Structures are given as structure tokens and as C-alpha cells.
Amino acid sequence: MVSISFPFLVCFFSFHLHAIAQPRNSNISLGSSLTPTGTSAWLSPSGLYGFGFYSQGNGYGVGVFLAAVPQRTVVWTANRDDSPVPSTSSLVLTTDGRLILRSPQGQDESIVPDSSQKIEAAAMRDTGNFVLFNSDHDIIWESFKYPTTTILPGQVLSAGKELFSSVSETDQSRGIFRLKMQTDGNLVQYPVDTPDTAPYSYYASGTDGRGDNVTLNLDDDGHLYLLNSTGSNIKDLTPGGHETNRTLYLMKIDPDGILRLYSYGLNQNGNRSIIWSPTNNKCVPKGLCGLNGYCVNQDEDVDCICLPGFAPVMEGNFTAGCERNFSSESCKNDNGRIRYIIQAAVNTVWENTGYSELSVRSREECEAACSQDCNCDAAMFKDGKCNKQKLPLRYGRRNLDDSNVALIKVGISSSSDESRKHGDVPKDPQRDILIIGLSLIGFAIIVLVISGALMLKVLALKF
Ligand SMILES: *[C@@H]1O[C@H](CO)[C@@H](O)[C@H](O)[C@H]1NC(C)=O
Ligand SMILES: *[C@@H]1O[C@H](CO)[C@@H](O)[C@H](O)[C@H]1NC(C)=O
Ligand SMILES: *[C@@H]1O[C@H](CO)[C@@H](O)[C@H](O)[C@H]1NC(C)=O
Ligand SMILES: *[C@@H]1O[C@H](CO)[C@@H](O)[C@H](O)[C@H]1NC(C)=O
Ligand SMILES: *[C@@H]1O[C@H](CO)[C@@H](O)[C@H](O)[C@H]1NC(C)=O
Ligand SMILES: *[C@@H]1O[C@H](CO)[C@@H](O)[C@H](O)[C@H]1NC(C)=O
Ligand SMILES: *[C@@H]1O[C@H](CO)[C@@H](O)[C@H](O)[C@H]1NC(C)=O
């Protein structure tokens, strides 16, 4: 039987890429099933793509992946925000025509959005499209219509549809960036959970106003372009014309928020290279560093730095952002336990959420204006303008071409500081007396030590 040979095929295609030629029956019939540790995928006729289980976290996810490259590259994910399933789960195309994920407890979950029609057969196609048919052989559902992170050759991102990045290369859950084919004709990238408006965008094709049914298309020679509703090419993102022999192209929004067109050399062990990307600057995607952090380029890579006076919420997790270690409520009355200084993050740019913009003569004047205002957590100083802000600050990144200085009000506990004071700082007479007293004692000790040393020297000279 066909199903018995599948585990063998999975191994076979993973390690012997040259042998993928023989066509196979791709029709998956009712009653077929998959398990993560047994027959884990239904392969396309050439073995290029598979539909089934892939490793996700401490369990498995379900989707379509490139089966002909050593690293299983997921190109479509079912129920992507569900928890990984255990190895005892199974995927079943039931005899009554449903495609379900069955848990060890016997609970069934639908893999495709509920369709009123009974499934008669399924197919994993060599295009990467996973297709379900009814009894009339009509397509009732196809994965190409529900893109997740990736567009494959022949697949279209239609108007109103979005791609969402994954959390990471190994976690296919929904991440923090999106690419939207807008109904105004513009193809735009934003962070998640933002309105579709220009202040939030970090990439745009610049084709707004070109009709309400513009689509993003990819051809098998790596040609990536936009078509309007009458089928005219309105913009080439890449020229195309790349090698097509045993080479696969796909476009995806990567976990870092950047769009990339990749090529996979199927005769070179799946060797992957980047063909195109709208930017090489990994700090461009807005929100990479979470709240109150800013992105800095470090050679090829990036780092997130917390604002002065802030610390990472979760060590090693950029997205979680930074938080400060004092409460702003203490600004007015804190019995002198906390006082404030202003610290600067130079050449950084942020989302502008200022509540008050002043014209100032100097940076010092801007610092003083924020210090004296309990509502002010930070101020942006640039070109004689002082823009007072409340926390949190978002979308921060270092840009050496931008003179903006972020001035941050930092609370420091009075026991530990040698920093400069700025503006109105709460005073505590008792504390000052204590400091003066301690300083005097310190001075006295130093004098004693020096005179002691001198006396020893004198004695040593005498004898
Ligand atoms: C697969 O199924 C389709 C649609 O049901 C049918 O047209 C086709 O002939 C089948 N192919 C094979 C190889 O069975
Ligand atoms: C599509 O673009 C072509 C060429 O620019 C233009 O002539 C045509 O009117 C456009 N169609 C729509 C619906 O905007
Ligand atoms: C855009 O596509 C939708 C759905 O395919 C269709 O209903 C609508 O008429 C199209 N609009 C234009 C201007 O072509
Ligand atoms: C495709 O490339 C292989 C080697 O990588 C070569 O043997 C074959 O002739 C090429 N086929 C075509 C149609 O160019
Ligand atoms: C992978 O691709 C790159 C660029 O296309 C090439 O320079 C490199 O030699 C390839 N590596 C292998 C193992 O084929
Ligand atoms: C990182 O932080 C984000 C935002 O707080 C959270 O959603 C995500 O689960 C965290 N990731 C890890 C690996 O802890
Ligand atoms: C906050 O942390 C900084 C550096 O870790 C420290 O100098 C400062 O005193 C702390 N502020 C408070 C209010 O604890």
C-alpha cells in the first residue's frame, strides 16, 4: 500500500535529492492518516513538498513544508497559534470527509476552516499547494488561498490579505510583524496591532491609488511583482529571469520583520541564498526592540539597548522590552528617597507621541523643562525643539544621521549617585547633614593616614 512506503520516502527524499523524479500518486484518499513519529507527511509527486507534521517547540505543528531540503522549511501552517501537539496525536482524513487533528484523548480539531462540503480527496501538489476536493472534483479548499508567512511561485497575495511573521525560525506561531496587500493598491509592512496608517509603516511599495484589487505575485524565475485588477503589471519588486533549473524561489516575511526573496538550489543540498530584500538594515522593522528599548546595528547583526535607567523585562527577549526600576508616582512626593537626573540617548529616533512641543535655545533648557514637569518622562531634543513625552517610548533605533537626542528622566535612589543634578531635585536636609558628616570623617581619616605615613618616613630617615 502507498501509505506504508511513506516513512521510507521521507527519509529517502531528505538525503537523496537527486533521486526526486519519479511521479507518484498525490491523491490522498479518505481514511488516510499521519502520525508525527510514523508516516509523518503526505508528499507531493516529486517529493518537493510535504503536508503533515513538523517539529514545533516540544511537540509538533501541522502544515506544508519543503521536504526536499535537509532543513524542513515550513511554508504554510495550520492553526498556527495553537500549542504544539504531542507525538501521540494523529491527522486523519476521515471516511466521512473531514480533515482533523485527533488528540490522544480522542478530541478532534479541524485543520481547515469548517466547510459545509464533504471532502472526497486531498492532494499535496508540486507547487506547494495543499488542496481538498469534493465529490465533483471541485476544489473546496486550498492552502494557497490562506498564506501565513510565505508566498510560493504561482501563489497570490490578494487585496486585503496579510502575511504575518513567525516568532522564530523554529516557532511558527504568529510573530510581531505583518505585510499587507492593501485595498488602496499599496503593499505595506507594519508591526502587528497597529492601524494601517503611514506613521506605523516601515516599508511600502508606493503603489497606493493604483486600483482596489492589486495583487502580489511570484513567478518561478524569481519575478516578484504587483498586478492591478485588469492584469497590468504596475510594479516590479524584482526583475526575475533567474535560473529555474532545479531552483526554487519563495518570498517570506522573516521573524525579524524583513521581507526576503530566497532561492533554494535543489541540486546543491537545498543551499539557500537571498535574492532580494527591501532593506539590509535589520533595525528598520518597527518594534523589534519592544517598549523603551532601541535597536543598534552591530555589523551584520543587531542589538537592543534599554533607555538609561531601564532594564530588560525578560533577559534575552528583545520583544518584551525594557522597564524602569522606579515609579513615576514618586515624582511629586517621595520623601527624598528618589531624585531625578536627565540622561541622554543620542542619535536615536522614536515614534513621536509628544504631548507638548516647546521652542528652546539649548539642550539644557529642554532638560530643565522636562525635569520641572511631573508629567514628563522623556523629551526629544532636535533643531531647537523640545518635545515632551510620556512613557512608554516605542520603535526606537539608533540613526547616526539623525541629530535627535532622547532625554530620559531617570530616578536614582539617593544613596548611590555621583551624577550631575538637573533642574528641581527634592532636597533632604538630614541626608545632606549625614553626607557632610561622613565626608568630614573621611577627610579626617585621609589626613591621619597621610600624617602617619609622613611620620614613618621621617622616623625611617632618622635611623
Ligand atoms: C487525483 O484526483 C483528481 C481529482 O479527484 C483526479 O482528477 C485525478 O485523475 C487523480 N489522479 C490520480 C493519479 O489518481
Ligand atoms: C491597470 O493598469 C493599466 C496600465 O497602467 C491601466 O491602463 C488600467 O486602467 C489599470 N486598471 C485599473 C483597474 O486600474
Ligand atoms: C475586486 O475583487 C473582488 C473580489 O474578487 C470583486 O468583488 C470586486 O468587484 C473587484 N473590484 C474591482 C474594481 O475589480
Ligand atoms: C539542469 O541542471 C542539471 C545539472 O544541475 C543539468 O544536468 C541539466 O541538463 C539541466 N537541465 C536543463 C534543462 O538545463
Ligand atoms: C550556495 O550558494 C552560494 C551562492 O549562490 C554559492 O556561492 C555556494 O558555493 C553554494 N554552496 C553550495 C554548497 O553549493
Ligand atoms: C518574549 O516577550 C514577548 C512579549 O512580552 C512574549 O509574548 C513572548 O512569549 C516572549 N518570548 C519568550 C521566548 O519568552
Ligand atoms: C535604578 O537602577 C540604577 C542602575 O541599576 C541605579 O543606579 C538606581 O539607583 C536605581 N534606582 C532606584 C530608584 O532604585
UniProtKB/TrEMBL annotation:
Residues 1-21 form the signal peptide. Keywords: Disulfide bond, Glycoprotein, Membrane, Signal, Transmembrane, Transmembrane helix. PROSITE patterns: BULB_LECTIN. One of its GO terms (biological process) is recognition of pollen. Residues 27-145 form the Bulb-type lectin domain. The keyword Lyase does not apply. This is Bulb-type lectin domain-containing protein. The chain crosses the membrane at residues 433-456. SMART domains: B_lectin. PANTHER family: G-TYPE LECTIN S-RECEPTOR-LIKE SERINE/THREONINE-PROTEIN KINASE SD2-5, RECEPTOR-LIKE SERINE_THREONINE-PROTEIN KINASE. The keyword Cytoplasm does not apply.
